[in-house]
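Onboarding guide, step 5: your first structure request.
Type a short instruction followed by the sequence, for example:

Predict the 3D structure of this protein.
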Amino acid sequence: MLVILGLLWMVSFVDRFILALLVAPLKADLHLNDVQLGLLFGTFFAVFYALMGIPLARLADNHNRKRLIIAGVVFWSLCTIGSAFATNYATLALLRIGLATGEAALTPAAFSLLTDAFPPRRRMIAGTLLSAMGMMGASIAFIAGAGVIAWAEQAQASMGMSAWRLALMIVGMPGIALTVAFAFIAREPSRSELEAKVSMGDVFRFLRKERALYGGLFAGAGAAQLISYALIAWSAAHLSRSFGLASAEAGSWLGLSQFVSAVGGTIIVPFVIRIVAARNITVASLLPATGVIAAGILVVLSTISGNAHSFLILSTMGAFLLVGITNAILVLIQSTVPGSMRATVTSLLLICVSGIGLGLGPALVPMLGRIFPQAYGELSAGLMGVAFVGCAIGTGAFFVAARSLRREFARLEER
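The system replies with structure tokens like these:
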């Protein structure tokens, strides 16, 4: 079940990020500007991902999670395929909202399902592997997307459709096929903690009691992903405009970059934090703040680099830290939150990540690009501005959480 859930999460990232490679044809065919594309890629998706996240997580905490996952995957896959037939911005935005609604069902239900399928000592490993497989979707979105676009550009004349439309049709199909496999393979396990059902009031009382910990972690993760999603949304366009790379070539390079940063960061950073926590809890509690500072510096340096290779290397190193820190937090809360509210709290974390990161990051780049000095180009200025903002917020938030984080690390080491 771990493998099939990981594959579904991979597909969700492919469908979510494919638009990053379609900036130029979307601008040409639908007459869009950078601000509209930023809203389409990030804000519209994030707002409805957040709005639907809580009610769908409540369903995951109290009802059949397998059926919820099946319904969500089918719905978002159909929305991705339907996007291929959009003729205007409004239609594409509505289908993007549908994609967000379907994807909001997956992660809380998947982590809750997985937690009940594994014994306590194996949950963190299982959660890390699930996160790693999911993060591979970001790299696959660029690598496979580049291949699909290259094929679609050659086939568009014979198929009678634009290349970007063919690409959206193709990437929307695997989700439906995987759903059929999931329906036959997966089972709904018994819940590991037979506690009374809790209300949203109970959840918020728990979070309020631990507000320094969860408030700091959630805000810090959101700030980290503000930078990360800005890079994902605009790196392909930056490589094209600043260094002359074609979409397929940029996608191939970014796919490799995403694989190193997303998969490597997801596996290595939580592992390092866990090893350090076993030796020095105080140092471990400061690693998230330190990591965000280092990532911010690396991203700023990447935006002022003079060639594509320097940009890719430096931004990959920054993204490695940002993604790793965020997923370490995602895995950590599976062990610190009561089982009866685990999916709901996971959803709240994802709301912060998507609301701050995906909702604001892509849209802020063209906006800040008009404000910050443009010596290196508008996109470079925008990415630099987002890096400054995300680094400042993330560092402060993680420092707030550090004391409570020390306590949680100590409790986990005692188990």
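Each response can be followed by summary notes, for example: The mean pLDDT is 86.
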